[in-house]
Amino acid sequence: MCNPIGERLGYPSGERKTMNKSNDVDAASDQPIVMRFCYADPPYLGCGKKLYGDMHPDAADYDDPETHRQLIERLCDEFPDGWAMSLHSPSLRTILPMCPEDCRVGSWVKPFAVFKANVTVAYAWEPVIFRGGRKRPRTMPTVRDWVSECITLKKGCPGAKPKGFSMWVFDVLNMQAQDEFVDLFPGSGSVQKAWDEFCRTPMLPLEYA
């Protein structure tokens, strides 16, 4: 059985996440502070034409490392408040050096993943590069730099992300309901759907899934 992280953000089971008002509200206007975040899930390096060539005319562009470099530059320029980007482990050594030094690497661990023929050590995790995010006061719980979630199946788009993964990304960046969120590569729409649910739920349950 595939289970999400049992105790979200380190709270004991049964408690829920609460927002820290001093971090969310502008002292002068008493209005919520709105930040702008982005999640990018481009075709992974070397997989563009193979997996998405029939779905988008520009998919093959992402088989070129330079396209990923341009994407990272765009993320840094347009989303200084914070962003996250998915990639696969074979491309990490190529793409990470393109990123600013203050970026970090998180991990999506897959308890259930697709095993490939003739690959005797399965690819069962994916890196997630992230930068920035809303400052997290010490009164808020610490977020792990990894999440354990099973892959999705039959979503109509290769690489569609599970809801629990998306919720983890929102927590890593400390996103809040008043923020602007841009999903640059919407694909199946699952990440946007998770964000809509996140915004509708002011007190979120502990489990990501």
What overall form do the CA principal axes indicate?
A: globular
Q: Tell me the Rg in angstroms.
A: 17 Å
N-to-C series of helices and strands: HEHHEHEEEHEH
Distance between the termini: 13 Å
Biggest sheet details: 6 strands, mixed
Structural class: alpha/beta
User: What is the top-level CATH class?
Assistant: Alpha Beta
State the helicity in percent bands. 10-25%
Q: Write out the strand line-up for the largest beta sheet, numbering strands in chain order.
A: 5-3-4-2-1-6
Number of strands: 6
Mean pLDDT: 84
Query: How many DSSP helices?
Result: 6
How many separate structural domains?
A: 1
> How much strand?
5-15%
Which blocks of ≥5 consecutive residues have pLDDT under 50? 1-22
- CATH architecture term: 3-Layer(aba) Sandwich
CATH topology: Rossmann fold
CATH superfamily: Vaccinia Virus protein VP39
